[in-house]
Amino acid sequence: MSDISIEGECEADFDKLRDVFAASFSPDRDHPEVGASVCVYLRGRKVVDLWGGYCDRDRTRPWRQDTIVNMMSVGKGILALCTHILVDRGELDLDAPVARYWPEFAQAGKKDLPVRYLLDHRAGLAAVDGLYRGMAYDWAAMVRALERTTPMHTPGTTPCSHSITMGHLLGEVIRRIIGLGIGDFLAANVTDPLGLDYHFGLADEDLPRCADFLEDEGQGLADYLLANPDSIPARTFGPIAVYETFNSLEWRQSEVPAANGHGNARALAKLYGALALGGELDGVRIIGREALLRASTEQWEAPDLATGLRMRLSMGFRLGSANTPMGPNRAAFGSTGAGGAISFCDMDAGLGFGYAMNAKFPGLAAGPRTAALVDALYDCKF
Fold it and tell me: How far is residue 316's CA from residue 377's CA, in Å, rounded to a whole number?
């Protein structure tokens, strides 16, 4: 077993979850944890809040209560929520053409492309025309490129994860309507009202508490891009600098919201804990229950062209499946991040769950550490 000290709080009914979390640090495991946090909200109350390990590969910086880390595509669920907040307020129509809100988007055959396809990854805009490496860090450049891009397939026909472009597409629609960048919109409408430590674009003062995102040799983005330059996954990640480690200052401080949101398990569990109660927690309502039910309605279940994984997707949220462990309730919804991070809501159980780690598990599926934690959660009595 590991000699890692697990800190935080855990109610007795959830001891099994604590034990599984602690065991995941064991050096006897394949790809053990280096540093991680896990948190559970149940019917509006925090019942588990644990963390342990280290922020760096050399194990010199302990993982603290306020440590944050890059949670990769967990941000896609946050993007979806921000978008549905505007739908709930009557400021955005999912069936309207994107060009109604963003006129320049109408170029290259996209005049009638509806907003809903930006959410469910069927817009055909997973890759951009006129690509150059590092474009993702320049918001204006990405917007111009997306305006000029011709969909890679007929919109509405082919599920293909918009691994990077989802954030710029939805973020620009939100900016055109509200006049705020996605990071500011998130803070004003979600994270500040609920007191959540989750960010699109880190401020200088947040950098010292950020854990390093850790990949093993051979599983990094550069390795894949260089070995498979013409593949669809390589094209979808094309706007990222080829040697990006996901620890650069540029990555941490720019807004690439489909993939570079930074936070911890506590923030995500509280957020999805609020959604589990219909969008309100501690007297703060961020979205209506009916809007959430519409947002979490399944749109497709199929292999994703970009990742090769079979997925279930709603209007921007991942739904539980073999590659997306969210417990036995098929209505549970949330988002996962490459390497294992996950956050989800089970409205029937009143449950919000968050898990964040820095040691990426190989591959694009959530991985066995994540699945073991979710299985242990649902084995607990609540």
Answer: 24
